[in-house]
Design a protein that fits this description.
NAD(P)-binding domain-containing protein; NAD(P)-dependent_oxidoreduct; aldehyde dehydrogenase (NAD+) activity; 2 domains; 15 helices; alpha/beta; NAD(P)-bd_dom_sf; globular; seven-stranded parallel beta sheet; NAD(P)-bd_dom; 402 residues; Rossmann fold
Length: 402
C-alpha cells in the first residue's frame, strides 16, 4: 500500500471502523495490484456520506434503520449499541452497518462519532439525558462543515391532566409553533428540545415529535411498542380491561413503519442538501414535526385490545374497569402481584408516566409532514394488536427460558 493510501485508510479507520472487507474483496493472489485496489476503494469510501445513528436498535430506530439501509446503500452507517452481543446481532442482519459499543453516557465515543458524521439521527430517549445531547451537539459543532441532526422528542410535551375526558386542544406544528417552542422547561421534552433548538445556527436541526407509536417494527431488539409491557402488566393486575374514568380522552397515534418514512424524507433532503420544500424551511429552530396518522379514544383503544388479551390468556375477564391513575401505576409495577394498598410509584417514574398516558389527551396535527409529501400507508394501530401481542408474548416466553 502506498503512503497516501495507508494514511487515508488510517483516517477512515479511526472514524468509521477498520473492516474494509465488508465493502470490498481484494484478490490475495496478486499482491502488486492490492495497492491500487485499496486506494480506489478508500477514495470512494471517503466520498460517501456518513451517518451516525443513536437508538438504532429501538422500536422506532430499528424501523428507520431498516429503511435507511434499503433506500440508501451508498451511505456509511454507524450505530451506537450497548453491548457486543447487540452489535453482533445487528451486523448479522445488516453486514455493512458498523457499530460503536457504548451507552448515552459514553461521551467520548458519541462526540467523536458525531464529529465524523454528516448526519446524526437520534431516536433514543431524551428525557433525563440532557448531558448526552450537549455532547452530541458539541461534536457536530466541531465539524468543518455544517451537519444535520434529526432529533426525536414526543407529544407528551402537550399532555393535559389525566381525567379521562375528551375536551382538549388540538396542537398544530405550524399554527402553534410559537407556543410549542416556548413551553415551560418543566414540560416533558421541553428542556431537551430547547437545547437542540439553540444549536440551530451551527447545525441543521429538525425535531420529530410522535404521539403514540404502534405496530410491529423490524428492530432486532424491540419489535413491539415500548408501551406494551406496561399495558400488559396493568391488564394482568386487574385481570381485565381498564380505563381512567370514562376513557374518552383521545390520543394521536402512528404506525412505526409510517413514522420511519418521515425520518427517511428528512434524511433524503439532508443527503441532497435541500433547505426548503414548497416554501417550508426543513431545518432550524421551528423545524418541529408532529408525527401522527389517526386519533383514538382510550376507550376505543382498550375495546380493541381486550379481546386480543383475552384470546391469548393474558386476562380472564373482558370487562373494562374504570380505575384511577394511581391504581394503574401500582398495577403497572406489580402485574399479577398487584397490591392495592402499596405505595404509589414516584411521580417521575416510568410506571407513573405510562399510567398518566391512559388518562390524558394527546391531540396533535402534523401539518409539516404533509408538506414533506408524506402520507400514512398503514392502517390503524388497533388492527396491529393481534400481531403485536402475539410477538410480545413470544418474547416474554423466550426470555423466561434464558
Amino acid at each position: 500500500m502506498t503512503v497516501f493510501a495507508r494514511r487515508e485508510a488510517q483516517r477512515w479507520e479511526s472514524n468509521w471502523g477498520s473492516n474494509l472487507g465488508r465493502f470490498i474483496t481484494v484478490p490475495r493472489s496478486k499482491p502488486p495490484r492490492i495497492h491500487s485496489a485499496y486506494l480506489g476503494v478508500i477514495r470512494v469510501l471517503l466520498q460517501m456520506p456518513q451517518l451516525f445513528f443513536i437508538g438504532g436498535t429501538g422500536h422506532v430506530g430499528g424501523a428507520v434503520l431498516d429503511r435507511l439501509v434499503e433506500l440508501h446503500p451508498n451511505v456509511l452507517v454507524k450505530v451506537l449499541v450497548r453491548t457486543q452481543g447487540k452489535a453482533s446481532r445487528l451486523m448479522s442482519k445488516y453486514p455493512k452497518v458498523q457499530t460503536v459499543i457504548g451507552a448515552l453516557d459514553s461521551f467520548d465515543e458519541i462526540e467523536s462519532s458525531c464529529r465524523a458524521a454528516d448526519i446524526v439521527v437520534n431516536t433514543a430517549p431524551d428525557v433525563t439525558h440532557e448531558a448526552s445531547y450537549q455532547v452530541i451537539l458539541r461534536g457536530m459543532k466541531s465539524r468543518e462543515t455544517k451537519g444535520y441532526y434529526i432529533h426525536t422528542s414526543g407529544a407528551s410535551l402537550i399532555w393535559d391532566e389525566p381525567k379521562g375526558s375528551k375536551d382538549a386542544r388540538v396542537w398544530d406544528d405550524i399554527g402553534d409553533i410559537g407556543d410549542l417552542t416556548s413551553m415551560d422547561v418543566t414540560c416533558t421534552h421541553s428542556a431537551t428540545d430547547k437545547i437542540v433548538r439553540e444549536a440551530a445556527q451551527e447545525i441543521n436541526i429538525a425535531i420529530i415529535s410522535p404521539g403514540g407509536v404502534g405496530g410491529l417494527s423490524p428492530s432486532i431488539e424491540h419489535p413491539t411498542p415500548i408501551t406494551t409491557p406496561g399495558i400488559l402488566l396493568t391488564a394482568r393486575a386487574f385481570n381485565s380491561g381498564f380505563q381512567i374514568d370514562e376513557g374518552q380522552n383521545r390520543h394521536s397515534w402512528i404506525h412505526v413503519l409510517d413514522i420511519a418514512e418521515i425520518y427517511l424524507k428528512l434524511i433524503g433532503h439532508a443527503l441532497d442538501g435541500n433547505a426548503t420544500v414548497e416554501g417550508l424551511q426543513l431545518w432550524g429552530p421551528e423545524a418541529y414535526y408532529f408525527a401522527t396518522s389517526e386519533e383514538i379514544s382510550f376507550a376505543d383503544f382498550i375495546t380493541g385490545l381486550v379481546p386480543v388479551l383475552h384470546k391469548h390468556g393474558v386476562i380472564q375477564s373482558t370487562e373494562i374497569k374504570p380505575v384511577s391513575v394511581i391504581d394503574a401505576a401500582r398495577a403497572s409495577i406489580w402485574g399479577k402481584d398487584y397490591k392495592p394498598d402499596a405505595a404509589p410509584p414516584p411521580e417521575d417514574s416510568w410506571a407513573m408516566h405510562i399510567s398518566i398516558l391512559y388518562g390524558i389527551n394527546m391531540r396533535i396535527r402534523g401539518s409539516r409532514m404533509f408538506k414533506l409529501g408524506w402520507m400514512a400507508e398503514r392502517g390503524s394501530v388497533v388492527d396491529t394488536f393481534e400481531d403485536v401481542i402475539a410477538a410480545h408474548l413470544a418474547l416474554e416466553q423466550n426470555r423466561g427460558k434464558e
